[in-house]
Amino acid sequence: MAYVALYRKWRPGSFRDLVGQEHISHTLAHAIETGHVGHAYLFSGPRGTGKTSTAKILAKALNCEQGPTPAPCNVCESCRRVNDGTSMDVFEIDAASNRGIDEIRDLRETVKFAPAAGRWKVYIIDEVHMLTSEAFNALLKTLEEPPAQVVFILATTEVHKVPATIQSRCQRYDFKRITAADIEGRLQYVAGESGIQAEPDALALIAHQADGGMRDALSILDQCAALSDEIITAERVRDILGLVGRDWVVRLLRAIAAQDAAAVLTTIADLLQAGKDLRQLLGSLIRELRAVMVYQAAGPLSGVDSFESSQEFLEEMAGVFSPERFLPMIRCLHDALQELKWTSEPRITVETALLTLCRPEAAAAPLQPPAAAAADAARLTQLETRLAQVAAALAALPKTAPAAVPVSTARPVLRAAMSAEKPAEETLPVAVTEEGKQIWQKLLANLRAQPDKGPVYACISKGRFCGMNERQFLIEFSSRFLKLRTDRDDYRMILEGELMQISGQPLQLVCSLAASDEPPAPPRPPVKKTAKKSPAPQPIQVDMSQLPPQAQQNLEKAVSILDGDFITPPSDS
Q1: 278-298 and 323-339 are packed helices; what angle lies between their axes, rounded to 10 degrees?
Q2: Which of 267, 344, 419, 554 is most buried, judged by most C-beta within 10 A?
Q3: CA distance 383 to 378
Q4: Greater confidence, 245 or 21?
């Protein structure tokens, strides 16, 4: 007789055999006992958690010769045919390979016929999210008004891809990941019944690597049993799965704690020579650091998975690393793990990350937001000050009644007159110091390195640093346009934020216009006076409604840069 894989041999045969899904098995068993069986079910959850097995158990429970019963006998003709996949009343459809509308139309034709031998016809559609939109639409009508004695069971690992119209016509059951403790207990039972000798540590390691899936756990146990001579050991499991041994992790963490860069590089070299996977290494380091962090925060907890860590090592590392170091270290390793997906030099990526962990100040650098927060506070204070100045200026204006302006629906026109240049801000004594020059160069380098701030860099790179004091940073421009553009609030806020991060203190940006060295232009010859005064320049009339959207955006941008404005002429009425 051909060998049967463990995950097939030990597939649950009744609701009581389901592991880790008691909330579902109890509900379905009670529905069968009370006769409240739905016409359509939607089973969703990670792979290997029992969705298809539960569907088959439900099919057996409905058609068992002793039933309907929540405990199918598994010995009658109907139960045996369901287990063998030869039942004429239970149809398993793989939606990944039968995803078109033609297959669903065939289903709609066959679903009308009465059951061949049992009480119910059961349709199990696996990976239902793979159906096309047309196939879902064809299935919708059947789910809405199903024939009597027909039950649909839809199974999926990606329930968000199932249309809401389909979900609303089904009873939805969410399968959860099975805990490592439940998987380990099931593995012990299967190993004992199958005559497989395995160390408890080996079964615990398999349970962790299964990642919540019972089918994966049984497959790993099957593989280890086939390749092991007598007893399955934890070391044998690591070799078969290509896992990084815990000794490597302990060795690296101790080198990081001692800030021993040479030991870190040597360990990585030895690990690569042993053929270990760098992704496995980073994942093991992250899990080990998480175990130390949890132990340091709350001590030993029975309900918290601590991977393979021994209490002695947890105590040792908890006494070495401060609580503030764990978040930067774990984030640094996560970033390196993401970078390994595309880098062509994985060794350099891992070495860089681990050497960074050897220097606590470097690992924590990306996580220090005080400078950015202080920059925001400084910008807010400046905006409040300017608002107060504007309010005071408005209060000082003579209070005259405004002229009545009739409401008009005339086309908008572009005002030709430009707003006056902003008055120069009051400056304190400044000096061109070496520190100021360094801040200026750092400011240019930071902006040049950020593509989204390219326009700001292009603008101020034409300027010249001309001094600073403890409150102000002065830039001089030879172009009036560049000076005005840099002085606007959007560029000003970006530059003052960068200055805050570089210098560590709030600095107010002051823009000035350099005096021109060119001689003044000769005066124009006097214009001969005439009796009639020349008319004032008229605004440029533009019909915005007739312009395409891109042209409207370009015009609005030009008006904003030149400090212009739109006005609406009074109506003729």
Answers
A1: 160
A2: 267
A3: 9
A4: 21
122 within 8 A of 107, measured Cβ to Cβ: no
Q: Collapsing DSSP states into helix, strand and coil, what is residue 457?
A: helix
How many angstroms separate the CA atoms of 328 and 207, rounded? 29
Helix H or strand E encompassing 510: strand 508-513
pLDDT digits (tens, 9 = 90+) for 127-165: 999 998 888 988 888 888 888 889 999 999 999 999 999
Q: Report whether 49 contacts 214 (CB < 8 A).
A: yes
- Residue 152 has phi, psi (to 5 degrees) of -105, 135
Strands 566-567 and 413-414: antiparallel
Start-to-end C-alpha separation, the chain = 101
Please, is 172 exposed, middle or buried when counting C-beta atoms within 10 Å of its C-beta (0-12, 13-18, 19+)?
Answer: middle
CA distance 48 to 51: 8
Structure tokens belonging to residue 69? 């019963």
- 297: helix, coil or strand? helix
437-467: burial string, b at 16+ Cβ within 10 Å, e else: eebbeebbeebeeeeebeebbebbeebebbb
Whether pTM exceeds 0.70: no
Q: How many other C-beta atoms can be found within 10 angstroms of the C-beta atom of residue 529?
A: 7
- Dist. CA 485–CA 532, nearest whole Å: 40
Contact call for residues 171 and 41 (beta carbons, < 8 A): yes
Q: Which of 337, 386, 371, 398 is nearest to 499 (CA)?
A: 371
67 to 35, 61, 78, 140: CA distances (angstroms): 11, 7, 11, 30
Distances in whole angstroms, Cα of residue 409 to Cα of each of 406, 477, 539, 551, 564: 10, 42, 17, 22, 21
User: What is the strand order of the sheet 566-567 is part of?
Assistant: 540-541, 413-414, 566-567
As a residue count, the chain comes to 573
Distance between CA 491 and CA 224 in Å, rounded? Answer: 63
What six digits make up the tokens of 287? 């899990």
* Residues whose CB falls within 8 Å of the CB of residue 81, separated by 6 or more in sequence, listed in order: 87, 88, 90
Give the separation between CA 220 and CA 226, rounded to whole angstroms: 10
Q: What stretch of H or E contains 197?
A: strand 197-198
Residues 125 and 95: beta-carbon distance below 8 Å: yes
Residue 57's SS3 state is: helix
Domains and CATH numbers, the chain: 6-174 (3.40.50.300), 180-241 (1.10.8.60), 246-366 (1.20.272.10), 369-387+428-514+556-563 (3.30.300.180)
